[in-house]
Specification:
By secondary structure, the chain is α+β, with helices and mostly antiparallel strands. It has helices spanning 13-24, 66-73, 93-105, and strands at 2-8, 32-34, 37-41, 47-51, 56-61, 78-81, 83-84, 87-88, 108-109, 121-124, 133-140, 145-149, 158-162, 166-168. The relative contact order is 0.18.
Amino acid sequence: MDYYCVMVKTGSEQDFKDRASRIFQDDYPDARFFFFNHTLRSNRGEYFERPIFPGYIFFQTSGLSPQFFSELRRIKGFCRILRDNANPEKITGESLKELRIFIEHGEHWGISKVRINPDMKVQAVSGPFVGLEGLVYKVNRKRKTITITSSLTPDGKRIDLLYEDVQVIPSP
């Protein structure tokens, strides 16, 4: 399977995913679309869901044919395929490894608890993000969260996590 990422209109990710799944289910039964949410806690202690990658839908297919791409572009909310429409780029390497962790754990992620040492690479060892690795971007001690940088998106999307149960990855 090949994996790609599509940029869509922010706020319409779930609608885009649902439409794409319906459109491709008959002619491309191996095509699957993924949109990931996770649970966060507000300053008031209330829980809410947020997209992990706002404006991005990931998908798998056995091949990105011109017909598949043409149909994909016609779906309401489509902006572009990454890298760009003229040069669609497969997700590979570390980014593919990270995407597979997301796919394996499903589209709705709860709260992950992580423990950190500043300026180090960390890996979640409990909660729904188990196995996810990232570089610590910032720490919010009041909210007890850390922000790590993802390698899945070109802009290095940042993900907020609780920091109670993460293990530091030793330097090589």
